[in-house]
């Protein structure tokens, strides 16, 4: 039984002299306490040394990807192919599967093999023998650097770590600015409390304090570069009748130093935001066009990297940032959240409250596609994101107008909906609608009509019955009058109404 041990300097193949020791995993470390014991259990069969760092890097990357490197393949062919019954102990399961497929050699990888590799690593210097320790250290350092550069695949435009750090720093700066502004307003509010209500903009408030100092200098100061004319007049009027307390010059000096800090942090924040915006357009242009640079950067920062965000499904992108609400809803068996960080996107913000869930779902689906194009695509263009944004804006317009029929594509859904609603209503029997007149038989399609149509048909039928009765009554009166005129013997005699009725009955 052979053991494959990979080192930065090359491949070492040992012969396991006692296979029964491998079964005693718990006591295996006792066999490697000294170099003499280790040499009794393992014997170096062959050592395939790498020529340079490039060959070592190729072998390491092949092992990471689960492939067999050329030097390893040649070495194993020499040692193991002739011996059919031999098996190979391998530390990596993927590498063992690849060796088995290529060379038809039985490979073993289990917990016992892992413990054996750990013991070999402790006594590697004595087992390898002729390899100097200094050379092994140098090869390990060179291979580590080369492998790290290979894994990074260095490209200045595709380093999402810069975006993650910039966005986190931007959030921290916002928090610090809010704390500093709150402290400045409270501190200066003891001296001039009315100024905080008149000037709502934080930066304008700080610049005013920095320029003026105490409220006594307000009247003589020119604030036209900082404030509008009407606000400047209100500030000067309020300074004359202010109810604030008096403060010393040292207090004003400390407040102005705090204002300097706030102004410098704000300037750096503006510069950092411009940097983040440029980096987002260079790295994820489609995602930036769809959801904006700030929301896109927060999604990347929350996922860890652009690649991780591209691996998430759209349903996860939709609720990214609302994990606490999601698990709380699952635990209490309530409605799950409809949106997370994507709620701050412009398209979701423009939608009404009832359509925010639909827009967030649609936007998350398109953002997921855009992220995959940005992460794995070769060309850095924003055409896909712009096209999806136009479609989402048209969908939002249709949702806000309430034209849901166009979204469904057909009118069948609406007809079925009305038919279903008709079945849920309760109708009372109307005996006055019964008649034996000439009413056409309804077809099966006409029978399945809405309640409104049925009522209209019933009213039409009643009107027809009434009109026919009126016609018959008029015809009957005409016949009676004609019969009376024919039965009159003398024109002078005018019969009474009672006699007319009797005659009409007699004539009938």
Catalogue the unreliable spans. Answer: 403-409, 412-424, 491-508
Helix/sheet category: mainly alpha
Give the C-alpha Rg.
Answer: 46 Å
- Approximate strand percentage: 5-15%
Q: What do the pLDDT scores average to? A: 81
Taken from the alpha-carbon principal axes, the silhouette is flat
How do the SSEs run, as a string of H and E?
EEHEHHEHEHHHHHHHHHHHHHHHHHHHHH
How many H/I helices? 25
Biggest sheet: strands, sense, closure?
A: 5 strands, mixed
Distance between the termini: 129 Å
State the total count of DSSP E strands.
Answer: 5
> Strand order, biggest sheet?
3-2-1-4-5
Indicate the percent of residues in helices.
55-70%
Summarize the topology.
Blueprint: E1 2-6, E2 10-16, H1 35-41, E3 42-49, H2 53-64, H3 70-79, E4 87-89, H4 93-103, E5 106-108, H5 111-122, H6 124-128, H7 133-152, H8 161-189, H9 194-198, H10 202-212, H11 229-240, H12 249-283, H13 285-291, H14 293-303, H15 306-311, H16 314-318, H17 323-332, H18 346-350, H19 356-376, H20 383-401, H21 404-408, H22 412-423, H23 444-447, H24 451-487, H25 497-507
What would you say about this model in short?
The chain has 508 residues and is mostly helical. It is 63% helix and 5% strand. Helix 8 (161-189) crosses helix 14 and helix 12 (249-283) packs across helix 13.
